[in-house]
Write a structure and sequence with these properties.
It comes from Aeoliella mucimassa. It holds the Pfam family FHA. With about 475 residues, the protein is an alpha+beta fold. It is built from twelve helices and 24 strands. A hairpin with an 8-residue loop joins strand 13 and strand 14.
């Protein structure tokens, strides 16, 4: 009868022949086998095979699985296993990723990659100091995001001194550039805050809105800028175009009918943590403006762009070779962020994560579709996406309007829909959970004279002496 240890080794060899490396390693790695020469020889063979698998996984991009194989190979054969090159390869991979994240402005992601070096015993004195610098930088960015630019600038003085002490390498150059950028943003935010205070004191509300928007692009959670913008909205008499707030809870999106009649939640209402963008039918409608064109109007704060498919809930379907859910555009406090779910390029820059959109940015999807993003009106957070590559939406539209608070149609260049022959403006806006219109021009809604604020619904026809438009469900 064979001894137990021989049976175990035989079982391990069978597992190895069948390609079950992990099972073979688990058997040979038992304490009661370590003293046998045959077990040590098989353990060395297994270590070589696991190291070979680690190389393949790392080359294929599965670096976490590759690293687990490196650790397993070291446990199987100790220092006799030639995995030093794999450890160095993995270390360089983490450094390269951290560099790329820093170049993209994703400091938190860079910090996570550098922290992995420390956790996995791949750190050096230089990378440890770099991690400390990046952590200070991340703290500064977080303070700046809430408007504490002076405190953020103060926290960067330590990292600047440490950078001067480190040698000049590719890694430190990228960190230094990011530190300089945040320092510049802190100074710009400080200067804008002074200008905002002066503009508010002088009641220059148009300038207040412009300055507040610029501050919020640097510090999205700056309460001072948010409050100044709300005050300016009230001062210019357009408070009715702000999102309706009922029962202390903001309505994230509105349909053309009263919200009491809605049979489904908004795609951005967050009623469930499991709801992802594009899983619910979008709130949108088509607006046909006579002698001007057709416009797809999206009412949700979060819209998905992608390829049209049967029974799809994509808000902005584009007839092109795209993913079904290619990208998400989100609106928050008047700012827009694009989140790439597939390949997205903005102004020639490939995205690896969310990016705040600015006026006249060019968005490229899938290498073929190009859209121009604009925010035409300073007093409205509504944005416009205009196809510039010849690809069409479904339903077909000349442009897509991401309607936040109001939509202005008229002859001036800052209108969301430019109607050059019109004698004045018409405004669509949200009020008390409904879509309404108003104009200083004589206007009828479905043949009834409109006097002041007038609710409108799907199928409505708005007409004046020299203009007309229709609203249809999409």
């Amino acid at each position: 009868m064979l001894p137990t240890w021989r049976k175990q080794l035989g079982e391990a060899r069978r597992a190895l022949r069948e390609g079950q490396l992990d099972r073979a390693c688990a058997i040979v790695g038992q304490d009661d086998l370590k003293d046998f020469r045959q077990a040590r020889e098989l353990s060395a063979e297994l270590a070589e095979r696991v190291a070979e698998r680690a190389r393949g996984r790392m080359q294929a991009g599965y670096t976490s699985a590759g690293w687990r194989d490196v650790e397993l190979a070291e446990r199987m054969a100790g220092n006799d296993c030639p995995v030093a090159d794999l450890r160095q390869s993995y270390r360089q991979h983490l450094l390269d990723r951290a560099q790329q994240f820093l170049a993209d402005g994703r400091t938190a992601a860079a910090e996570q990659e550098l922290a992995k070096l420390a956790r996995r015993g791949l750190n050096s004195s230089e990378t440890a100091e770099m991690l400390e610098i990046v952590q200070h930088l991340l703290q500064a960015e977080q303070m700046l995001s809430v408007g504490k630019s002076a405190e953020a600038a103060q926290s960067l003085r330590g990292p600047t001194v440490q950078l001067n002490r480190l040698g000049v390498t590719m890694d430190t150059q990228l960190v230094a550039r990011r530190v300089e950028q945040v320092e510049h943003d802190c100074q710009e935010h400080h200067d804008l805050a002074s200008q905002l205070h002066a503009a508010s004191a002088n009641q220059e509300w148009q300038q207040v809105l412009e300055l507040a928007d610029r501050m919020l692009s640097l510090a999205p959670r700056d309460r001072v800028a948010q409050a100044a913008r709300k005050k300016a909205w009230r001062a210019v008499g357009l408070d009715a175009t702000r999102l309706f707030h009922g029962a202390g809870r903001p309505v994230a999106s509105l349909s053309l009918k009263d919200t009491a009649d809605l049979k489904r939640p908004s795609s951005s209402s967050h009623t469930s943590n499991d709801t992802m963008p594009g899983s619910e039918p979008p709130n949108r409608f088509m607006m046909w403006v006579d002698a001007v064109g057709g416009f797809l109007v999206c009412l949700d704060e979060e819209v998905v762009l992608g390829q049209p498919t049967p029974n799809s809930n994509i808000a902005i379907p584009l007839c092109a070779d795209l993913s079904r859910r290619h990208a998400v555009i989100r609106r928050e406090g008047g700012n827009y962020t694009i989140d790439p779910l597939s390949d997205v390029v903005v102004d020639g820059r490939p995205l690896t994560g969310p990016m705040v959109l600015a006026n006249h940015h060019t968005i490229e999807l899938g290498g073929t579709v190009r859209l121009e993003f604009t925010k035409p009106h300073a007093l409205s957070a509504t944005a416009r996406l205009t196809p510039i590559s010849g690809h069409r939406t479904e339903p077909r539209a000349d442009a897509v309007l991401l309607m936040a608070d109001s939509c202005v149609m008229g002859p001036r260049s800052h209108s969301h829909v430019i109607c050059r022959r019109w004698p004045g403006d018409i405004m669509l806006f949200r009020q008390a959970g409904r879509l309404c219109c108003r104009s200083n021009l004589p206007l009828t809604v479905d043949g009834v004279a409109a006097d002041g604020v007038t609710p409108v619904e799907a199928g409505a026809r708005l007409e004046g002496e020299s203009f007309a438009l229709s609203l249809e469900e999409a």
